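re: the backbone from monday

yeah here it is again, tokenized this time
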């Protein structure tokens, strides 16, 4: 099945359709998708390191009540976990679910929008 933009172009003639298909076939996203995948793998490794660091901090600073710093460590770990989960969903959506579906590259998946919210929230908390 052709994407909607191709079916709209069909009225202009088959030469335009062939030019559109030729443009899609020449599209090489290997480097872009590879960089995204490597970025998510590295983010998962760093998340593992921060999880160990947060666990060590929370065990070393046991206190009867919850302190401000313990709350900050827990809050930042939750933000990091949400960021990694949304990154993995975003990459899975584009690389696995919509593999070779170039029309879906024009749409922004909900997890990418969530990442922006998480990043802005985390940065504004740090300020």
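seq for it, each position gets an aa:
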């Amino acid at each position: 099945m052709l994407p909607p933009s191709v079916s709209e172009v069909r009225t202009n003639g088959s030469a335009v359709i062939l030019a559109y298909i030729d443009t899609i076939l020449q599209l090489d996203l290997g480097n872009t998708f590879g960089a995204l995948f490597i970025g998510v793998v590295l983010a998962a490794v760093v998340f593992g390191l921060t999880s160990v660091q947060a666990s060590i901090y929370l065990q070393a600073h046991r206190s009867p009540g919850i302190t401000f710093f313990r709350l900050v460590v827990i809050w930042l770990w939750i933000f990091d976990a949400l960021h990694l989960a949304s990154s993995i969903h975003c990459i899975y959506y584009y690389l696995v679910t919509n593999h070779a579906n170039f029309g879906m590259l024009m749409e922004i998946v909900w997890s990418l929008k969530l990442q922006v919210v998480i990043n802005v929230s985390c940065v504004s908390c740090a300020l």
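The mean pLDDT is 79. Residues 94 and 105 are 7 Å apart (CA to CA).
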